[in-house]
Amino acid sequence: ALVGFNKPTAVAIVVGATNFVFSFVNLVLVDKLGRRILLLITVLGMSLSMVVAAVAFHYIPISKDLVLESSSVNWAGILVLVTIIVYVACFAAGVATIAWVGTEFLPLEVRALGTMMNTVTCWGCNIIIASTFLSMMKGMTPTGAFGFYATVCFLGFLFVLFLFPEANGLPLEDIRQVFENGFDVKLASQMQKDLKAKQQANKV
Q1: Helices 75-93, 8-33: crossing angle, 10 deg rounding
Q2: What span, in angstroms and rounded, lies between the C-alpha atoms of 157 and 134?
């Protein structure tokens, strides 16, 4: 409704269906591409979609009280809807599901505690976003709020790029070795290459 659509239920159904469908995309691709590659693609997609949404909001006539000052949907409103759908698709195919398999990094003796901390962090962030979103929209304008979220997503992309090793298929002992000296992304990459070479040799 904020961008001019008078059927919010239909919009919610489209967004929800996108979330559902792209969760299965993750199921198909996560073991083929690996967690790291999939996160790099989808988190960058989330950031770019938020940037486009921030720019599009600049061209939508919205008052400081978040009231639409137009009775029709312009091109910017349609673009915002498209970017939200793209964002949800990227989120569902990446962070939404991979976040829950991140516990594979944790040793067995602390995995239960780590899973609990992961859950608390996830839902804690959801509560913070839900409780501050409208205040940010009013205080920073929609463009500023979505620009802020785009920055957060881009920082997440940088985190994955430099600090998130690929652990797909690695035994727990190798994962321990990856984290002995911090976040050794290069070592994990080399281990992945060695693992694939060993698998190819076994097939021959």
Answers
A1: 40
A2: 25
Residues spanned by the domain of 53: 8-150
Neighbours of 124 (CB within 10 A): 10
What pTM does this model have?
A: 0.86
Of the pLDDT bands very low, low, confident and very high (cuts 50, 70, 90), residue 60 is confident
Q: How many domains does the chain have?
A: 2
Helices (H) and strands (E) in the chain, counts: 7, 0
**What is the 3-state secondary structure of 39-63?**
HHHHHHHHHHHHHHHHHHHCCCCEC
- Answer for the pair 166, 195: CB distance below 8 angstroms, yes or no: no
Is the same domain home to 129 and 56? yes
Which residues share a beta bridge with 145?
none
Residues 102, 97: Cα–Cα separation, whole Å: 9
Residues 68 and 144 in one domain: yes
